[in-house]
Design goal:
binds S-adenosylmethionine, 7 strands, Rossmann fold
Length: about 250
């Protein structure tokens, strides 16, 4: 279990580190120059984007399969993947937040930061997220362990957003992540998952086995690489009992 007391840091932790404060995470900011040339507010954003991209590159070089992208997602993908989520979905779960591009979009859509829980495996990203979003709960752990992790004081989430690179994970891991995620979702709630691939990253037999269905809600070319978003939800209330946690 992750101790929620150690999963938060105070805003003061981030004071004085321009990389960690008030930063935007719009993504694809790998412009070599521009930090000094732009107007003040924008300059900070551009520097933060650049440092996020460098951070991503470093993490990707260290663990390419786990990080599964060489740069943070762009603003267009963040807007798309959060487009169906609003305040009434609180609390909301986010998997694989990286530098927090989707987190920022969720907050921009009116979600109370205190109603967000982020699950991030990479220690560097987790500490960046704690500094950047001090009111958000950040759990440094694998999403594979969601099945046994207590969240939201026992409340169920109204939606989940995933930036995980499911295509580079073994099927067993994907099964564990989906099972654990849906255990924390209310009936009717969906998991929003993006992919760079041509179809849903969860294969049809696995969806069927878990009693889930996937619908593509859109795609964007304003992302590098272009990406699609799928809404994955339970086919009906009934298949809950078919989820592997009940079957094993
Ligand atoms: C493709 S990146 C996406 C990051 C961010 N959502 C974005 O779109 O810019 C995948 C993220 O998932 C994290 N990750 C990979 N495997 C994970 C796991 N098993 N549990 C939690 N996070 C994981 C990586 O560390 C990385 O931050």
């Amino acid at each position: 279990m992750v101790d929620p007391r150690t999963s938060r840091t105070r805003a003061a932790d981030a004071q004085g580190d321009p990389e960690l404060t008030g930063a935007t995470a719009e993504g694809h900011g790998a412009r070599a120059s521009g930090c000094r040339a732009r107007p003040r507010g924008q300059a900070v954003d551009t520097c933060a984007e650049t440092s996020d991209t460098l951070r991503f590159l470093r993490s990707w070089r260290a663990a390419p399969l786990r990080v599964a992208a060489i740069a943070p997602s762009g603003g267009a993908l963040a807007a798309l993947i959060t487009s169906e989520i609003g305040m009434h979905h609180a609390p909301v779960l986010e998997l694989g937040p990286g530098t927090g591009v989707f987190t920022k979009a969720l907050i921009a859509r009116g979600l109370d930061p205190e109603a967000l829980t982020l699950i991030e495996l990479d220690a560097g990203f987790a500490s960046l997220l704690r500094a950047r979003f001090p009111q958000v709960q950040v759990l440094e752990m694998s999403a594979e362990r969601l099945r046994v992790q207590q969240l939201f004081g026992g409340r169920k989430a109204g939606a989940a957003v995933s930036g995980l690179g499911l295509l580079s994970m073994p099927p067993r891991t994907v099964m564990a992540i989906l099972t654990g995620t849906f255990r924390h979702l209310r009936p009717g709630a969906a998991l929003y998952q993006f992919t760079y691939g041509p179809r849903c990253p969860v294969p049809r037999p696995m969806l069927d086995r878990l009693g889930l269905d996937a619908k593509r809600i859109g795609g964007t070319f304003r992302n590098l690489p272009p990406a699609s978003v799928y809404r994955i939800s339970r086919v009906s209330a009934a298949p809950q009992h078919l989820l592997p946690e009940h079957g094993r």
